[in-house]
Automatic annotation (TrEMBL):
<dbReference type="InterPro" id="IPR002698">
    <property type="entry name" value="FTHF_cligase"/>
</dbReference>
<keyword id="KW-0547">Nucleotide-binding</keyword>
<keyword id="KW-0479">Metal-binding</keyword>
<dbReference type="InterPro" id="IPR024185">
    <property type="entry name" value="FTHF_cligase-like_sf"/>
</dbReference>
<dbReference type="Pfam" id="PF01812">
    <property type="entry name" value="5-FTHF_cyc-lig"/>
</dbReference>
<comment type="similarity">
    <text>Belongs to the 5-formyltetrahydrofolate cyclo-ligase family.</text>
</comment>
<keyword id="KW-0460">Magnesium</keyword>
<keyword id="KW-0067">ATP-binding</keyword>
<dbReference type="InterPro" id="IPR037171">
    <property type="entry name" value="NagB/RpiA_transferase-like"/>
</dbReference>
<protein>
    <recommendedName>
        <fullName>5-formyltetrahydrofolate cyclo-ligase</fullName>
        <ecNumber>6.3.3.2</ecNumber>
    </recommendedName>
</protein>
Amino acid sequence: MWTRWLASNPTPRVKAALMIQPTSLLSPPPRILPSRPACLRPNVTMSTDLDQSTHLNEIFKQKGILRTQVRKALKFMDPSLRSQEDNAIQSIVLEAPWFKSSRSLCAYISCTSLREVDTSKLLTEILRNPAKDGCAQTGKKLYVPRVEDKNSHMRMLNISSMDDLIANSMNILEPAPEDHVGNVREDVMQANVPVDLFLLPGLAFDKSGRRLGRGGGYYDTFLRKYQELARERNWKDPLFVGLSYSLQIMDEGVIPVTLHDVLVDALVTPSGVIPISPSAIERIDVGC
Ligand SMILES: Nc1nc2c(c(=O)[nH]1)N(C=O)[C@@H](CNc1ccc(C(=O)N[C@@H](CCC(=O)O)C(=O)O)cc1)CN2
Ligand SMILES: Nc1ncnc2c1ncn2[C@@H]1O[C@H](COP(=O)(O)OP(=O)(O)OP(=O)(O)O)[C@@H](O)[C@H]1O
């Protein structure tokens, strides 16, 4: 798995991040060893929980600084460049064989005030040709985010039209739990068909797959749970694809990460697709 690839190939910066995780961010949790008398303890300096949480706070602080810088750059982005880049990114996705062949997708509903890469054309195309019951070979099924609470809990619910969406307290369009006739919307975690493709928002990305979100932890928490589900069911890993304006691509090492952060498999920028993980290199190069 790609996230495991990171853990076994850390860059010096990631290595530092990996060494300072508090127990709650380590996976799997460490085994609990019986304590030894002080005289038998090795005479080495161990990092304490306090050191670890100080370092973790430092990472979150660095993330906050980077978020502020990127938000500012997005605010001052030339509107005609923005619209040119929105069109270029969406055209690249629409033409991509891995998009055309996808049958079940999770995508975000772009929010103008957050200055996110526009997904409106992609959503229109996905909804134009819905998957019909009993005919999974054609058409696409779309799931979009719904924030459930402030504890990084988000679900992905099925919609069949943009009219299914209403603005939430953050002014992001999202589906109500039930449709207009009172039927409970399908949650992607209950679906019996795997998601092939996730189109992901982010404030910043790099070419090694790091992604800086908006700080809620919603996507990282969700993506990790979905990876676990796919593994339990022996499904192929979905492709995690970030959509990024040029100015959101950072040099490697600039985006701070913790073990909680999930890497993207590929990026779509106005200049093209950047496959990153081994599975993305395989799927994107062979065109499916
Ligand atoms: N379109 C879209 N939908 C999404 C997300 C997203 O990033 N984009 N999310 C991804 O998690 C979840 C919602 N999480 C969000 C987290 C923060 C903000 C937000 O307004 N952030 C402000 C700063 C707020 C502050 O710091 O006080 C901002 O980034 O400018 C919005 C959504 C689920 N739905
Ligand atoms: N100093 C801190 N110590 C511990 N946890 C924190 C700290 N600051 C933020 N968090 C929590 O860590 C979680 C992940 O934050 P992180 O910055 O990685 O989010 P993100 O990757 O930007 O967001 P998303 O996954 O939604 O895109 C959030 O739930 C956040 O509340």
